[in-house]
Amino acid sequence: MPPRNSLRRFLAATTGALLVTATAACAAEPSPEVAVRSFLLNWQEGDYEAAAQVTNGDVAEVAEALRQAHNQLDLAALRLSLRPIEMDGDTATAGFGAEADLGIGDPVWRYTGTIPLTRTDSGWVIDWSPAVIHPELGEGERLAVTYDVPDRGQIYDRNGEPLVEETEVTAFGVRPAAMADMTEGINSLAELLDEDPEPLLNRVRSAPPEEFQPLVLKRTQDVSSSLLAKATAIPGVEVEEGTMPLLPIRAAGVVGEVAGTAEHKVANRVSGPYQAGDTVGLNGLQSSFQQQLAGTATTRVVTLSSSGEETGVLETWTGEESGSLTTTLDHAVQEAAETSLATINGTAYLVAVDARSGEILAAAGQPDEPSNDGALTRQYYPGETFTIVSAAALLSGGKATLDTTMACEQQAEVGSRTFTNPNGGSLLGTPDLRTNFAYSCTTAFVGLSSSLSAADLAESAERFGIGQPWQLPVPAFSGEFTVQGGQEQVAAATVGADGITVSPLGMALVAAAVAGGQWHAPRLIDGVEPEVDSIPVDPAVLEPLRELMRAPVEQGSASVLNIDYVNPVHGQTGMVTQEIDGEEKTIQWFVGYRGHVAFAVVVEAAPSHTYQFAVNSALSFLQLLPASYVSAAEADSQLEGSA
């Protein structure tokens, strides 16, 4: 249990004292109440010798029994209240109520007890026995707190495949009865494992002394023979081997990390009511669904015999069973995404969604680490991939058609800003919109932007989901459009160079809107529907947009992806300069779809004039994608139904 709260102790003690005193003030003398009041107040305040003085037991033995009861329960606070006293000649029975605070994260144990008294020549004294502490505590017995912790639940993909692997773990713990000096032993173990000793001590003090108490979990592969030897050399320290679902098999940045792995430090890494040895999700779904996945322990206050056998259960607080979680992720699609990024030496992301529903099929990041959730959260300029959105704005307002021509010069100036094509080249003549889109011609779209306003672009961006107020159970960025006006700013936004930020997920959803005929808010958890309504793509715009997105693959900047004429790839490339963590980077994009899988690839690279890394990763992903996602019949049916 975590360190106790001293303020909580003080308030409980002082409030309890007032309760006892107030009750006592109404009593008439002579009365056994004086002895009872003195006993309860001193017991509550931890002055066990003073409490023992008003009993007929051996003072040292009674004081030690009260002290041990406190330690056996590892109490944060004890609050006692006096109840009616019944007298019968020279004997009396006093009732009392107890509220024993078992600590932060643990319940408060409330029970009632009775105190027998006898009148002697020197006054009333308490007839001592262990039953004074609790009516069911017998001679030679002690108290203890036990915990039955449910196994952590699994996280599954859409097909029931586990996303978290069973990991071999080593539990370092103690058998309290075998410890020569509990405090010294726990301190030694904590120092060896680089842990805070206080939570470990709190767990052990109240535990059954004959039972093994797991305190710190480590992956077995991270435990050296030297560490094992040093740990087990401490009297009472033992280790046990086992397996737990701790490490993500796939989608590490979405699934998240569980404390209890290589750097298990629940005490100083996680706030809240967690005990030494618990598994705690630190990020991702493991954190968002911590209570569902971990459940809560069933806590019991029990009595034990001198040999450590359980003799009775005084109170039980039933915990919640752990549960599993099913996501929309697809293990095979996720594997394809991760494999396609594996050769990238730097930061890269790939997100794939089902165009029919917005369900997230894969969210991969490079580096592939639980702390890297950039597939859903990283904020980038979209570069020329935003021409999907700006082309929709041009087409929907009748400001352009597929036959509209515009020169594709190497450079173009608007106001004080100079725009350059991604590869530094140009196209001959005055190409039509389809050709300019095919080659991601920045300067041509800058020229076309003169017929657009900031409001036109903002409306189109909104209809493709950018900035929509959807939410996922893990951190995610829906995008932001901040252009207020001015032709220079509109030109920059038209080609995704400024005034617009998106996440890889956000751009995958843009491609999905074209593939499926309507934009859907993303979904990550099976059975959980988004609260944001779907938005249909203007039917007059949809087919021209699909034709535009076919052009880069057929003849333009992404022709390497022209791998299937029956079920063709559609998409758009983009490249933009952006400062990332204080360093100038070239952000390479490919955004597209095949069948009902829409996806976005983004790669942070050194300044360059190529889409190579993003396009090659897209090619690898498509080649590894399960055939069921790109079958021609299924894709045709899906597209016809949405047109």
Automatic annotation (TrEMBL):
Residue ranges of every copy of the NTF2-like N-terminal transpeptidase domain listed in the record: 32-140
UniProt main location, coarse: membrane
Residue stretches making up the Penicillin-binding protein dimerisation domain: 149-312
Domain Penicillin-binding protein transpeptidase: 349-609
Cell cycle listed as a keyword: yes
Annotated localization: Membrane
Biological processes, Gene Ontology terms: cell division; cell wall organization; response to antibiotic
Gene Ontology CC: one annotated term: plasma membrane
Keywords: Cell cycle, Cell division, Membrane, Signal
Pfam families: MecA_N, PBP_dimer, Transpeptidase
Any GO MF annotation of the entry: peptidoglycan L,D-transpeptidase activity
Span of the signal peptide: 1-27
Family: Belongs to the transpeptidase family.
UniProt cross-references to PANTHER family, sorted A to Z: PENICILLIN-BINDING PROTEIN 4B, PEPTIDOGLYCAN D,D-TRANSPEPTIDASE
Listed name of the protein: Similar to Cell division protein FtsI/penicillin-binding protein 2
Species this chain originates from: Thermobifida fusca (strain YX)
